[in-house]
Write a structure and sequence with these properties.
Elements (H helix, E strand, L loop, with lengths): L5 H9 L12 H18 L5 E5 L5 H8 L3 E6 L2 H14 L4 E5 L2 H7 L4 E7 L8 H11 E12 L3 H14 L16 H10 L2 E12 L4 E5 L5 E8 L3
Parallel strand pairs: 1-2, 1-4, 2-3, 4-5
Antiparallel strand pairs: 5-8, 6-7, 6-8
Helix pairs in contact: 2-3, 5-6, 6-8
Amino acid sequence: MMNADPQELAKFSELAHRWWDPESEFRPLHRINPLRLDWIDRAVSLAGKRVVDVGCGGGILAESMAQRGARVLGIDLADKPLKVAQLHALESGVAGLEYRAVAAEALAAEQPAAFDVVTCMEMLEHVPDPASVVKACAAMVKPGGWVFFSTINRNTKAFLFAILGAEHVLKLLPKGTHEYAKFIRPSELARWCREGGLVLNETRGMEYNPLTQRYWLSSDTSVNYLVACRKSAA
């Protein structure tokens, strides 16, 4: 069985043509991308690294990492976003960037311990078995390499902010973008990381002020949060 929800794939495929419009439904991704990109680059220094971006969608993060000098493979199971990513890469003329329609688990079996860096951002809360994706990410990274995740906590505040607030009140995202039951507590993600042989290095929260429309990283992981891990070099 493929670890993907057909409804999720269809949902993002329908919006694929708007992926690179910074004022579209993907505006939040465009706004947070500099934050997550700089956070990753500070930890690992992307230049010259071989990177796989799991659940790359239309390629916003993948392309920006390639612009920092990484050799990036973006993977996803939604065909339309991948085609948008490929077209945008051609138009941008970014070197060291390619895309494939392949599952994380399949790539992990094909290329174990092959990447210096693995990123999986805003994706785990959209798949039936997120633990399986975490395991695959851990399998793909080289010993001593880095794995970065971002997702949404599961609690009352996250429901109010990420679903009621972002989707229904502020309309930052289309209604139905997220399902509360698929949100992931930091303790759950940490356990899956440990089970995959990853050592947690840092956890950061991401906050948003609707009045100033500003995003920033903080120590508050109660809603959106990011996790940096390393695979043991032993």
